[in-house]
Amino acid sequence: MVQDDAAAPVRPGLVGQLVRFVIVGGFSAIVDLSVYFLGLHLGLSTHVARALSFIAGTTTAYALNRRWAFQVTGGARRAGSFALLYGTTFFLILGVNALALLVLPESSWRITLAWAISQGLGTAWNFVMLRLVVFRH
């Protein structure tokens, strides 16, 4: 029996997924950073602002990564795995952000740099775990 390859969606390979993940991550980071600065502007503590910004960025990232970067359909198991991964990442980025705020010297860039460091580490962790665990076939 001949299989009709035109009917099956072609999932991007590692490089394609990585490129799409970076694009989604860039957009999600803009959402994250915008919410972070909005929270700070509204008088929230850095920890509360960072927590809220993470939730906004994560929601954006999940929707776009699932449909575009990794091209998989949903399901309770995937959503549960994603929630577990991002719950772990949540504590990772909050801890790294807090640590960076403690060790970075006072400057006008300190808060932004702490955010960037925590975001970078969280992003690397997420790509590996999304590819190997959450969105694997």
UniProtKB/TrEMBL annotation:
Membrane topology type: Multi-pass membrane protein
Highest taxon in the source lineage: Bacteria
Domain (GtrA/DPMS transmembrane): residue spans on this chain: 20-135
TM segment ranges: 18-38, 44-64, 84-105, 111-134
Primary site of residence: membrane
Pfam families the UniProt entry points to: GtrA_DPMS_TM
Keywords of this entry: Membrane, Transmembrane, Transmembrane helix
Location of the protein in the cell: Membrane
Family the entry assigns: Belongs to the GtrA family.
Protein name: GtrA family protein
